[in-house]
Amino acid sequence: MASWSRIARRIRVPLGFALAALYLWLAKPTLMSLLIGLALVVPGIVVRALASGHVQKNEQLTTSGPYAYTRNPLYLGSLILATGFALAARSWWMAAAMAVFFLAIYLPVIRSEETFLRERFAEFAEYARHVPRLLPRLTPFGNGKSEFSRDLYRQHREYNAIIGAVAMVAALVAKLLWISN
User: Fold this and answer.
1) At what angle do helices 159-180 and 31-52 cross, to 10 degrees?
2) Helix (H, G, I), strand (E, B) or coil at 63
3) What's the average model confidence in pLDDT over 148-172?
4) Which of 68, 81, 92, 163 pairs as cysteine with 140 (C-beta 3.0–4.6 A)?
5) DSSP class of 71
């Protein structure tokens, strides 16, 4: 499984672009599906942005901000975003492909990252006992407080998620207009 995790880590971005192309081909958006999808896409982007502005990768175990609620807020944000786009597409095939992508690619990557964190940070075991892997808890672990860092947000280039989401929404709107003519 460790070797698949390494492969999954390497192929997740290029495979994601291939999935995006398939998505645009299979999508059958309506105005209502776009609005419903956007109701999840926007919170997904916000969750990712908040997480990005707190995490200091490989330097310290981040347990504040959204990490006080879930160990993987970046992946949770991606899952929310993907769900929004699946609803916007109105394609069961695409929803199934997205679910398979998450299960086959992201779950092994999450497990691999948690193995790394467990080995690197002694306090990870305690944190993992109290904070769920993906679905958030209702109350923060610890004090859960720290300041959002715009510098970290920029360093992690999380603005690319916004650019990608806007481009995808624009493509869906174009497809909707093309379909309706």
Assistant:
1) 170
2) coil
3) 90
4) 68
5) S
